[in-house]
Amino acid sequence: MSQELWAQVDDYINSVVIGSDAALDAAAASAVKAQLPPVSVTPAQGKLLHLIARALGAQRILEIGTLAGYSTIWLARALPPGGRLITIEANPTHADIARANIEGARVSDRVDIRVGKALDVLPHIAAERQPPFDFVFIDADRTGLADYFDWAVKLSRPGSVIIVDNVVRKGGVIDSASDNVDVKGVRRFNERLKTDTRVDVTMIQTVGAKGHDGFAMALVR
Ligand code: SAH
Ligand code: MG
After folding, report:
1. In this model, does residue 137 exceed pLDDT 70?
2. pLDDT digits (tens, 9 = 90+) for 54-91
3. Which distant-in-sequence residues (6+ apart) come within 8 Å of 27 by Cβ?
4. What is the pLDDT of residues 156-187, one digit of tens each?
5. pTM of the predicted structure, to 2 decimals
6. For ligand 1, which residues put their CB under 6 angstroms from it?
7. CA–CA distance from 73 to each of 15, 108, 197 (Å)?
8. Residue 163 near residue 137 (C-beta atoms within 8 A)
9. How far apart are CA 99 and CA 108, in angstroms?
10. Alpha-carbon distance 94 to 25, whole Å?
């Protein structure tokens, strides 16, 4: 098994379940052009987020980590008329690129981009006393992961779903001696998850165009 094969299978899967999509293809191309890190969800992962949000009938979605807005567009398209998605991005350049892509996908009416560090922005969102989020996608830096997850639980309701991306990190997650900040962030999150009575959770490892990684799915009790 190799990265090359995983990428070819992902291409094949995309040809079966997605095909070409002008707005998403443009968003992906913009990220390449701006030399952003190649860490957007793959098309098939984006569609999984979209389908979960739709299956939940999500009306309010929170995303932490926007990058070029690729996953944002998938999620925004799952919302019914009047639905709302708040996405948090620390890097103003990324936020500008995302804004253009979200406009290109004609979902800007539903999307609210908050520029700032998640741990600064989340307390503001809490202070706004909005209705709870039905679906949360956590995909920013992993240093703050455990804290983002706490906020996600706090800002949701029983039955809400929280997806946490990139929790396997090429298998790095099993290395208790790792000094990689991302691995340490995920491991700290996982340690707390073991005794977290607020959620029921699973974790799935994946291979594909973006390598060997995985995601966690939590259902809020
Ligand atoms: N969800 C996107 C990819 C996000 S990449 C997609 O799949 O298409 C991670 C993003 O999180 C980057 O744009 C990075 O700038 C942002 N980020 C990193 N640390 C952050 C923080 N503390 N608060 C908010 N955003 C952060
Ligand atoms: Mg990710």
Report:
1. yes
2. 999 999 999 999 999 999 999 999 999 999 999 999 99
3. 40, 68, 69, 70, 73, 101, 104, 105
4. 999 999 999 999 999 999 999 999 999 999 99
5. 0.98
6. 39-41, 65-67, 70-71, 88-91, 94, 117-118, 139-141, 144
7. 19, 9, 32
8. yes
9. 8
10. 17
Mean pLDDT of 128-133: 97
Nearest-Å Rg of the Cα atoms of the chain is 17
Pick the residue whose CA is nearest to atom 5 on ligand 1. 67
What is the amino acid identity at position 101? N
Q: In what order do the strands lie in the sheet with 133-138?
A: 111-115, 84-89, 60-64, 133-138, 156-165, 211-220, 199-208
Please provide the size of the chain in residues.
221
CB 50 within 8 A of CB 78: yes
The pair of three-digit structure tokens given for residue 71, joined into one six-digit string: 């996953």
Q: Cα(43) to centroid of ligand 2, in Å? A: 12
Atom of ligand 1 nearest to the CA of 67: 13
Strand ranges (E), the chain: 60-64, 84-89, 111-115, 133-138, 156-165, 199-208, 211-220
How many CB atoms neighbour CB 157 within 10 A?
A: 12
pLDDT confidence of residue 1: 67
pLDDT at position 134 over 70: yes
